[in-house]
């Protein structure tokens, strides 16, 4: 359960923004979307490798 303490004289918008950040960090929504449909483990591994290669290429490009 996510708890956000609202401080004195703090706007609701600011508290809502902090709640959204905390909620995003927990990864609940990401996991919910991944469970929406079944993905074979072999395909999941393949996608994970593709993402890793992509990130590695991005990082290598930034160093030059």
Automatic annotation (TrEMBL):
<dbReference type="InterPro" id="IPR038380">
    <property type="entry name" value="Ribosomal_bS21_sf"/>
</dbReference>
<dbReference type="GO" id="GO:0005840">
    <property type="term" value="C:ribosome"/>
</dbReference>
<comment type="similarity">
    <text>Belongs to the bacterial ribosomal protein bS21 family.</text>
</comment>
<keyword id="KW-0689">Ribosomal protein</keyword>
<keyword id="KW-0687">Ribonucleoprotein</keyword>
<dbReference type="InterPro" id="IPR018278">
    <property type="entry name" value="Ribosomal_bS21_CS"/>
</dbReference>
<dbReference type="Pfam" id="PF01165">
    <property type="entry name" value="Ribosomal_S21"/>
</dbReference>
<dbReference type="InterPro" id="IPR001911">
    <property type="entry name" value="Ribosomal_bS21"/>
</dbReference>
<protein>
    <recommendedName>
        <fullName>Small ribosomal subunit protein bS21</fullName>
    </recommendedName>
</protein>
């Amino acid at each position: 359960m996510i708890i956000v303490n609202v401080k004195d004289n703090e706007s609701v918008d600011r508290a809502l923004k902090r709640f959204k950040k905390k909620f995003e960090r927990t990864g609940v929504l990401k996991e919910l979307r991944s469970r929406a449909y079944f993905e074979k483990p072999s395909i999941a591994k393949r996608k994970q490798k593709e993402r890793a290669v992509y990130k590695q290429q991005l990082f290598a490009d930034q160093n030059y």
